[in-house]
């Protein structure tokens, strides 16, 4: 989902957690959000392609832009 779609879900209290973790497909970091009904929703661009960030700080900043004040960082 795009950042604006995720902001909308956050304002409806449908997202319960922001998670930043290493990408499995490239050398970078992805942002996912835990949905209130279960499952993870990734941050994507307008074409539905998962966003990958070059460093953990940029990924965290994008997670905070959705509305969260806290982000869980998973470092495997």
Q: Roughly how many Å apart are the termini?
A: 24 Å
Determine Rg (CA atoms, Å): 11 Å
Residue stretches low in confidence (pLDDT < 50, at least 5 long) are none
Mean pLDDT: 96
Strand content: 25-35%
* Largest sheet features: 4 strands, mixed
Order of helices and strands: HEEEHE
Strand order of the largest sheet: 3-2-1-4
Descriptive report:
- Helices cover about 25% and strands about 25% of the residues.
- The protein has about 80 residues and is an alpha+beta fold.
- It has one domain (about 5-75).
- It has a four-stranded mixed β-sheet with strand order 3-2-1-4.
- The longest helix is centred in the last third of the chain and has 10 residues, at about 55-65.
- The mean pLDDT is about 95.
- GO terms for molecular function: kinase activity.
- It comes from Grimontia sedimenti.
- Keywords: Kinase, Transferase.
- This is Thymidylate kinase.
Briefly say what this structure is:
The chain has 76 residues and is of the alpha+beta class. The protein has helices at 3-11, 56-65, and strands spanning 15-22, 29-35, 40-42, 72-73. The chain has one domain (3-73).
How do the strands and helices of this protein lay out in sequence?
Elements lengths: L2 H9 L3 E8 L6 E7 L4 E3 L13 H10 L6 E2 L3
Parallel strand pairs: 1-4
Antiparallel strand pairs: 1-2, 2-3
GO molecular function, one term: kinase activity
Keywords: Kinase, Transferase
Protein name: Thymidylate kinase
């Amino acid at each position: 989902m795009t950042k604006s779609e995720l902001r909308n879900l956050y304002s409806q209290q449908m997202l319960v957690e922001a998670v930043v973790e290493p990408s499995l497909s490239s050398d970078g970091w992805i942002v996912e959000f835990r949905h209130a009904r279960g499952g993870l929703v990734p941050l994507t661009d307008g074409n539905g392609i998962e966003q990958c960030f070059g460093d953990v700080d940029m990924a965290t900043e994008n997670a905070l832009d959705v509305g969260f004040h806290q982000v869980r960082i998973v470092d495997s």
